[in-house]
Amino acid sequence: MDRHLLKIVVCPVCNGKLLYKKERQELICKLDALAYPLRDGVPVLLESEARAITLNEITL
Questions:
Q1: How far is CA 34 from the centre of its chain?
Q2: Which SUPFAM superfamilies match (predicted)?
């Protein structure tokens, strides 16, 4: 994930900051408890493609 891209990409639901989780290839929105996948290094920022995450996953 390009760190310059990570600085400008925001959650499509709340416009909040996203955290990159390299091991799962996901962008995490703590505010909405959603994880957006990366496919071939490209963020898929569609709410319909996001998965809900648990509180444990948010704090890791």
A1: 7
A2: Trm112p-like
pLDDT per 10-residue tile (average), the chain, 60 residues: 83 94 92 94 94 83
What amino acid is encoded at 56 in this protein? N
Residue 60 pLDDT: 60
Cα torsion angle, 39, 10, 27, 53, sign = negative
Neighbours of 8 (CB within 10 A): 7
Q: Are 48 and 29 in contact (CB under 8 A)?
A: no
The domain 3-59 is classified under which CATH number: 2.40.260.10, 3.60.15.10, 2.20.25.10, 3.60.21.10? Answer: 2.20.25.10
In this structure, the number of other CB atoms found within 10 A of the CB of residue 26 comes to: 22
